[in-house]
What we know:
Pfam family, one: Phage_TAC_7
Radius of gyration: 14 Å
Shape: globular
Largest sheet: 3 strands, antiparallel
Organism: Comamonas piscis
Strand content: 15-25%
InterPro entries: Phage_tail_E/E
Strand order of the largest sheet: 1-2-3
Number of helices: 5
Distance between the termini: 43 Å
Number of domains: 1
Protein name: Phage tail assembly protein
Number of strands: 3
Order of helices and strands: HEEHHEHH
Structural class: alpha+beta
Amino acid sequence: xxxxxQTKQTTAAHTRKSASVTLVQPVVRAGQTIGQVQILKPxxxxxxxxxxxxxxxxxxxxxxxxxxxxxxxxxMEAEIFQMDTVDLVSMATEAAIFLxxxxxxxxxx
Length: 109
């Protein structure tokens, strides 16, 4: 059975564009292992209090504020600071693609 917060996250994930990131080093929280995270397309509200240039330059402090707002399941700021660098860069890249409107080249391109 889902909690109200989980239902809200699931609904948000279905109504907003998202990208999935498989973590190299899963996050362990209260005995639960999180190995895959969805990055939701940030809304303007998600970007409140942040400088876009810092997010796009992958400033860790800016990402630690943004990612808990746009990840499903929601990662905590402390978890962002403890995660593998490869995972942080992967999630930041997905967020940047949403913010810039860039497309990821396919293998045939």
